[in-house]
Amino acid sequence: MSTTSATSPATTATSPTAGPATTTTTTKARSGLDRASVEWVKLELMRVAYATRGGFLARRDPRAVIFWYVLCALAPWFTYDTTVLAILFAGALACALAARIGPLLLVLFTVGLVGQGLYLLVIALVLGGDPGAVDGLLQITLKLGTLSLASMAAFVSLDPEKLSDGLLALRAPAVVGFGVSYGYRMVPLLVDEFQTIVDGHRLRGTPHQGHGFLGYRTAARIGTIAVQSFYPLMLNTAKRTRTTVEALETRGFTVTGSASTAGRSLRLAHLRLTWADGALLLVTAVVVAAAYLVGVLV
């Protein structure tokens, strides 16, 4: 008895030599705007909170990273010189790119910076193009931009465990480290709950009739769903609070905190300050001092 099988010529390619038939499929890689989906945004948030992309700060001791961040965050607020602020902003931008910040944060930062620039332009036109007003608004933008870039570079490079250990090593209250670890673990819960609630509203609700003028119906629907999702989001997340706290306690956050000196020493035994950490802080201090010196000479 013999059997026959039919195969699709579009998906099967048979080698001219003896051997079994091989099936080939073609998939198109997603790129550009095709990647901007809810799932992609959720994965990017998870990478920001828990993973690092191997930047230069990710290999440094968390205490050195925290000191570096404090130095970069405070440096712009002691001057009103636009030249100094521009140099500090350029340095912070270089550090942020070297820290390999994800595309989501970079896009959000760019949109905010462009919006701030348009705001400056409108204010300048309203004030009659006064150079002093424009310079003052530009200084605020550069200061906030430098602070934002330094924050992204530092905290993207530190996972919750390293950040909590760094704060504990600097004698910060144990509740601060516990709160940092708890807050990081609440990020995926909030994202999952929000997506579930929004999907439920979209399934149960009546679809709108068209987008309307300039998409006002779509914007109104999205805004309504976001407002209506707030209380269910808080309630559903509160149900998981006890589970999250118990998981942290199981890992010994209280025992290895201020409650036990031996437990604290055991938890921080892996931290080592090296010459590279010192070089990072020294080079940063030199760059900041050089920026201030250029501002005095120019």
Report on this structure:
β1 and β2 (22-23) form a beta hairpin. This protein has a two-stranded antiparallel ribbon with strand order 1-2. The N and C termini lie far apart (95 Å). α2 runs antiparallel to α5, α3 runs parallel beside α5 and α4 (103-126) runs antiparallel to α5. The chain has helices at residues 38-50, 62-74, 82-98, 103-126, 131-156, 160-169, 174-204, 216-228, 230-239, 241-250, 261-267, 275-297, and strands spanning 12-13, 22-23. The model is unreliable at 1-28 (pLDDT under 50). With 298 residues, the chain is an all-alpha fold. It is built from 12 helices and 2 strands; from the N terminus they run ββαααααααααααα.
Overall, the morphology is flat
Strand order of the biggest β-sheet: 1-2
CA-CA gap between termini: 95 Å
Order of helices and strands: EEHHHHHHHHHHHH
| Strand elements, count | 2
Q: How can the largest sheet be summarized?
A: 2 strands, antiparallel
Model regions low in confidence, pLDDT < 50 over at least 5 residues: 1-28
Backbone CA Rg? 26 Å
Helicity range of the residues?
A: 55-70%
Number of helices: 12
Give the arrangement of secondary structure elements.
Elements (H helix, E strand, L loop, with lengths): L11 E2 L8 E2 L14 H13 L11 H13 L7 H17 L4 H24 L4 H26 L3 H10 L4 H31 L11 H13 L1 H10 L1 H10 L10 H7 L7 H23 L1
Antiparallel strand pairs: 1-2
Helix pairs in contact: 1-7, 2-5, 2-12, 3-5, 3-12, 4-5, 6-7, 7-9
